[in-house]
Amino acid sequence: MAKEIDPKDTTRAKAYELWMKAPNPMVTFFKTVDVTNLIRISKRKKIKFNMLIDYCIGKAASSIKEFYVLPVGDKLIKYDSIAVNTIVKNKTGEVSSCDILFDEDLNKFNQDYLKYTSSVAESCIDRDLSANSMVIGTSAIIDTEIDGAVGMNSGIFNNPFMIWGKYKRKLFWYYLPISFQFHHTQMDGAHAGRFLANLQKEIKNL
After folding, report:
1. pTM: predicted TM-score of the whole model, two decimal places
2. What is the pLDDT of residues 81-113, one digit of tens each?
3. How far apart are CA 170 and CA 141, in angstroms?
4. If pLDDT is split at 50, 70 and 90, which confidence band does 153 have?
5. Where are the beta strands (DSSP E) in the chain?
6. E strand or H helix that includes residue 123
7. CA 116, CA 125: separation in Å to the nearest integer?
8. Per-residue pLDDT band at 1 (split at 50, 70, 90)
9. How far apart are CA 151 and CA 47, in angstroms?
10. Fewer C-beta neighbours within 10 Å, C or N terminus of the chain?
11. Residue 48: exposed, middle, or buried by beta-carbon count in 10 A (0-12, 13-18, 19+)?
């Protein structure tokens, strides 16, 4: 469920004043995360690495209240759920977009991930949950090693967005450089930093 709220009644009131009409309100952080545990789980249990990292993103964000409020147009919208978006290669060889509602139950999230990504790949129809959930966008460029990427500031799509490429191996450990872009009205650097710290913790503790 989503509803409009008055910025003055939130902790983001000052940020709303400062950043809603800024020419470029988007901020990007870069971080390299240790994904060794996810690689091992993926290989041992034969489940998708991308699903695991999407799950950890949702888990890391779900405990931070700023993720549930998003500037949409000139309004501030509050949500009661979070979804993680993934890009799917469809049957035509092009890409489609698929939102997966975050569920703390990993097995349920995995089932939903497999069900809806398969459906989107076959139908070539995007699955959009943005009307009811705050969606974290992701883009995985898995065939290329990248050090980071900056998303565009469209002025329309204000959702937090994560980009990563191919993970890197160093001896027995695996590392993944990621970028995290967010709208400054939604959160400050401290909140983004806490999210990235949470992400690393969730990856290691999964």
Report:
1. 0.95
2. 999 999 999 999 999 999 999 999 999 999 999
3. 20
4. confident
5. 2-5, 26-34, 69-72, 75-79, 82-89, 95-101, 134-140, 161-164, 168-170, 173-183
6. helix 106-123
7. 11
8. confident
9. 28
10. N
11. middle
Give percent of the chain with pLDDT exceeding 90.
88
Burial label for 82, CB within 10 Å (0-12, 13-18, 19+), is: buried
Nearest 5°: the CA angle 27, 202, 117 is 80
Residue 194 CB partners (closer than 8 Å, separation 6+):
64
- CA distances for 7 relative to 13, 47, 79, angstroms: 5, 41, 14
Residue 165 to residue 177: CA distance in whole angstroms: 7
| Residue 12 structure tokens | 């983001």
* Closest residue by Cα to residue 101 from 122, 121, 123, 79: 79
Secondary structure of residue 129 in the 3-state scheme: coil
Name which of 111, 19, 119 is nearest 71 in CA terms: 19
Sorted by sequence, the CB contacts under 8 Å of residue 93 that are 6+ apart come out as none
